[in-house]
Specification:
The chain is α/β, with parallel strands linked by helices and 230 residues long. 35% of the residues lie in helices and 10% in strands. The chain has a five-stranded parallel sheet with strand order 3-2-1-4-5, with helices on both faces.
């Protein structure tokens, strides 16, 4: 199958980083067609998928939601992010040694999701996959690092014919830069979801809520999706 050098597959969770990345690929990089892929893997914050649908339409992307909900019971014992797992902690509850890989880490998530995205890209004749790994300001995950990106691309490069490459343009950038870029691109941040608890409103205290709040404050703008006041 002939390669499509301008097409792209974008992992779209519906969160801030992936939503900005989607618009960045479409508007700044001029990629077309864009295939946006979202996953239902048993996450507590399943409402992020509604935001993913909105952002895909706004960016003019072809959108697929892949049902991996069978993973939920398998991964719940190892992740607070999965429904049925341990309670999601507040960021301030985490000990310093937990910040390198907090309880909200999902075992091997990005390797699984990127492998499927790469397979889909290859089948579509697309050579580039984008995902929104970002240099977390308050905590971190090993599968959102430059080292992980380098190694997964080394494995994909073993393909003898139609190698796919994974790109993570935000992997070394603080979240405030993602906010600023999203504002430049006109991203509707009210239609993004970050809170790990997935309630009616963002909790304002879990690791990703704190990081999101700090990023908007650093950018000097208000988050259009305010947290609860409890």
């Amino acid at each position: 199958m002939a390669g499509n050098d301008m097409g792209a597959v974008v992992l779209l969770s519906g969160g801030m980083d992936s939503s900005v990345l989607l618009h960045y690929a479409a508007r700044r990089l001029g990629r077309a067609p864009i295939h946006a892929i979202s996953y239902h893997y048993g996450q507590r914050h399943l409402r992020e998928l509604a935001c993913a649908r909105f952002q895909a339409v706004a960016a003019g992307a072809e959108h697929r939601i892949i049902d991996l909900s069978f993973l939920g019971p398998l991964l719940a014992p190892g992740s607070a992010l999965i429904a049925g797992g341990a309670d999601v902690p507040d960021l301030e509850e985490l000990a310093p040694e937990q910040l390198a890989q907090p309880p909200t880490y999902v075992p091997n998530r990005n390797m699984m999701l990127l492998s499927m995205a790469a397979a889909y890209a290859e089948a579509q004749g697309v050579r580039d996959v984008f995902y929104g790994a970002q240099a977390q300001d308050e905590y971190g995950y090993w599968d959102c690092t430059a080292a992980f990106l380098e190694r997964i691309n080394a494995v994909l490069a073993l393909n003898r014919k139609d190698a796919v490459r994974v790109h993570a343009p935000f992997v070394s950038k603080p979240k405030v830069e993602t906010v600023r870029l999203g504002l430049e691109l006109g991203v509707d941040f009210a239609q993004t979801w970050s809170c790990y608890r997935g309630g009616a409103r963002p909790c304002g205290a879990c690791p990703t809520c704190v990081e999101r709040n700090n990023a908007f404050e650093a950018a000097g703008v208000s988050d259009p999706l305010p947290a609860s006041q409890s």
